[in-house]
Batch of 3 targets.
Target 1
Amino acid sequence: MPKKHLNDAWRKVTARFDILDRHRDVIMQMMGAAWRRWRAEIKAKSYDPNTPLDELVSIRPVPQKLALEVWEALCHYWNTNEFQEKGRKPTRIEIIKISRRSKKRGDAPVDDEVRVEALLDEAARLQLQDKPEGTQPTEVHEDAFRL
């Protein structure tokens, strides 16, 4: 968030409440957590990733009494590939690969995990062969895990 907005928020808080400047960091952390909760609530109630972007942006009235520009910006952000990747849950195969690494040995696989990872990758590759072109490997991880 831009420093100007943070300073404006702090001025509004201190104008309303008698708070010492030494508490600024804690108050700003609390405000950040409240902002993230509110944003997550809006997304959970109002955003559907299966709805086309133009339909989402044209929802009237705008959810949660947001400004139209803010709603459009949120919809565009939530629709980006970068956000889609960040916001998705890891597959079981990804969790296995991450959890079976040694931090002490520079993320080297623990014991026989190289063999296990190779088997899981092969199972995912075989599952991917039966799917239409353009299917992402993570889409077949659950099926490959069951093999």
Target 2
Amino acid sequence: MTSSQKVDAFIENSGQWIDELKLLRQIFNSTELIENFKWGAPIYTINNKNVVGMVGFKNHLGIWFYQGVFLKDAKGILINAQKGKTKGLRQLRINKGDKIEKTIVLNYTIEAIENCKAGKEIKPENKKTIIPTVLKEAFKEDTTLSDLFKKLTPGKQREYAEFITTAKQETTKLNRLEKIRPMIKNGVGLHDKYKKS
């Protein structure tokens, strides 16, 4: 299935937001952006960089500007949907019944494209993974487990470390270790089964 076909299916299965998503797709495709389908949603890119995405939620439609922090936002319509968590991402929310101002969306998109071409971006911080003692001890006993853990992506390593660290009692930490041991050996992340391909 091509990206275009995936976006077609996504829109057709978006219930109350079908017309709005079709309009946004038309706006984004009128630019030089390339249509992709990532993380279960349409994402529009240039030079392999995410510029804008769209998704319908229960109460609103979200237009995500990946480096939206650099947009002038003269209309004051962008929000940081996850304050303290996201640094560059900004969202334009559209509630059911609101009219999508095509010119505004297009102008913001064109500015986002120009910012991307100019190299304006906030890169995600590389968080250092702190390995809990329980896991360090397991690595000493089982070097294969240690080697396989090191082959995981930094994000997967962090998920496992946090999973153990967040347990309050030692017994719970040991139980969690036993739960994740076969997952690490299989090279999968803690939350992989919940992630859409």
Target 3
Amino acid sequence: MPPDMPLPQIAILAMVFLAASGLAVGLFLLLRRSETSRRLERVVTGATPTLVKEPSQSGWVESVVKLASPLARLSIPDEGWEQSEIRRRLMHAGLRSASAPVVFFGVKTFLGLALPLVGWFAITMAGKDMGASRLVILLTLLMGMGYYLPNLVLNRIVKLRQRELFEAFPDALDLLTICVEAGLGLDAALARVASEMQLKSEVLADELQLVVLEMRAGGGKERALRNLALRTGVEDIDTLVAMLIQSEKFGTSIGDALRIHSDMLRSKRQQRAEEAAAKVAVKLIFPLVLCIFPSILIVVAGPAVLRIGKLLSTFGQ
């Protein structure tokens, strides 16, 4: 790069580089193997998932944690962190490692400081004079956006994960009902269902495996089931846990309770699908009115409007 190149050209080159990089990353995400392909590969190869997964942490993750630690200290709460809402949201998102809070709060602090700097740099390069008050307001808004953007991403991850758990849970309950009625105990039935659900939902399988490990470690069925409801944050799983605990206490049939609950969850899943299908017509109104209808109006009425304009112009003469 020549030393006398002006700053606007440097900014344009940087934007072109970012656009090309984003296009390459988008093509990679689009063309990578889907989850269905990976499941089929596991079925064909006959790979059986293990109950205990070896923890693996690459070197770049450790480097990110080291870099994020000083920034995380600026925003992580000093007291009451274990009982905070963010801690529960991280747990519901499946981020249970010790480095997850450090990376999360480090990213919050970094974005809260980086976005105002980028905005100030962009305004300086553009040569606009916004005034001190407007500049302070804009930088404050950028700081707030950068600080709360990770919360929005975390909420999105939690929502997708809970949706997957809700959709896969009725099938797991059917398998659990068959195993219990076949004579297996609750812990053995959960272990069997966890191994079978790997092909359907790895998230639910991992949660059930953690329940089995807690039972085998001597934590007790009630505590393991309550921890399952706490980790997932799904209301239907919490209801099932309460039902299983009551069945264990009063000695009622677990199979009948599981069958009734699975039928209720399946009906609820079908109702959600019907509700989403009914909302499609309403959601299509906005793109139809804003995008398709103006184009159709121009194509259909455009020639007529031009002809009427020519006729009116001749009358005026």
